[in-house]
Design goal:
The complex is a heterodimer of chains A (about 280) and B (about 300). Chain A has 14 helices and no strands. Chain A has about 280 residues and is mostly helical. Chain B is mainly alpha-helical and about 300 residues long. Classes of the chains: A mainly alpha (about 280), B mainly alpha (about 300). At the A-B interface, α1, α4, α5, α6 and α7 of A face α1, α4, α5, α6 and α7 of B.
Amino acid sequence: MNRKRRNSVLLHVCAIIVAIVILLPFAWMVEASFAPQRDLVGRPMRWIPSHIDFSRYGEIFNGSEGSVGSTFRAAMVNSTVVAVAVVLIAMVVGILGAYAFARLRFPFRKVTLMIFLSTYMLPQIALLIPLYFIVNSLGLLDTTLGLILVDSSLVIPFTLWILSNYFVTIPDELEEAARIDGTSRIGALFRIILPSAKPGIFAAMMFSFLLAWDEFMYALIFTSSDAAKTLPVAISEFAGRYTTDFGLVAAGGILAALPPIVIAIAFQRYVVSGMGVGSVKG
Amino acid sequence: MTRISTVAAPRRRAGKESQRRLAFWLLLPAAIAVFGVIVYPIIRTLIISFFEVNSALAVETPFIGIDNYLQALSSSGFWAAIGRTLYFTVVSTAIELTLGMMLALLLNARLRMRWLFRAIVVLPWAVPTIVNAAMWKGIFNAQYGSLNAALTGLGITDEYIAWLGHPFLALNMVIVADAWKTTPLVAFFLLAGLTVISPELYESAKLDRASWPRIFRSITLPMLLPSISIVLVLRTVEAFKAFDIIYAMTRGGPADGTQTIAYYTYVRAFSDQNFGMGSALSYIIVIVILILTAIYLKMLRQAETSLV
């Protein structure tokens, strides 16, 4: 009993240390976004700011046309548009395809699935040059539509993978019962499979959103102005240009990190289940 | 009996037909997306790699065969980038797998407020790569970075260190930033594997009074092998492709010290506007990734048979 208690205390101490290591860098970034510049650059640095300074957030939210703030706000809108559109496209396309892989028997099923999955292994850079030519010839350079198209394809293999593994775990009998009652396959997909696959669907949506929100290389090459530039590109430009004002970079970074953090924490339990089906099934 | 089977057989065949047709239509959208933006470009890249393609699209592009590849393989910059990539890949994967395993066990343990702990661990994974890179760039900053402030404050060092100012040091600092973000992801992956190990295995081991390290070695580790191997493949591939974090933290510098192969390829293709060379380099990355994946899969198969 005593040993058990000691182990438990030890585990909790480890957990607290890990939590601190994880939170410390992020906490410092939050602090830097609020601390007066003077406190940050002084030596020794003031760990506890002399007062709270909202000016960077003000600059980001109210900055006039052509300022850092307006670029950031445009990027926020572009990122949201791209991520939401990518999630919608990838979910619709992914659900249809995943149903085919999980429930239907057709020739070259395994090979087709492998081709879809192996596209993940390809480095984005190996697709970048022809894609640049294609996007350019379609007149979609520097448009959110262009980004939505290329990002969706990046995300679709993931949704196919997560969803088809999930659909397989739903008992056949449920669907068969509905089909005997006269429901078509597509009807059964929407009425039986989708409601029972909720965890898989949430996991797939979350992964798609994070992937699209995080995507950098395509956005860097295919966008150049506020019309389509996404947050990662805007932040990397901030970080390059305002090297002396880390507070501004920090404020932008926190705003850019908030949506994915909120989503990841809200859907936290699906992180494990989303990966679980994948790793168990291989 | 016979009557039923003769009736059922054609219907089953018709069912197969309709399944095929339905599968075709259901997969068509995914196939178009993946073919148009992945399969077709990867073939185009192969073709471009055999031409001398410079800058503008209109320029005449003579076919030069494998010259781009030969030129790449004979340049010292390429081999230096490969060396840095291998270092980055091996060190970051080793760190992330080791820490990730420990973290997974901790996440799986009986903890008070486990939900809070899990929510904290999810955080770095959710932070966008570029934000993570910008954050660590700030922490490592030579003048106002918090790492220098903390180290001098604690009396560990006397002077401020330019963490990203020395080529080899900078590479290691990029690894630290990468590990902070990625270890939680690895941990959740392994946790998913841990949760499917049946508790009976542990209970019978406890009845045998097996020690903790022994339980880990003979139950946890072998049962996690499939998850570990998948993580190993995914992390190696990811590390080999590392671009965002390097772009945002160091842009390949100082003195090319953090120029890994993906970044090197990006510079050759887009800064030098040498698309032929960029394509050849891309293909070299693809080939290396394929070889590594094949080796891992073979190792996994051997490990599995040796367990049986």
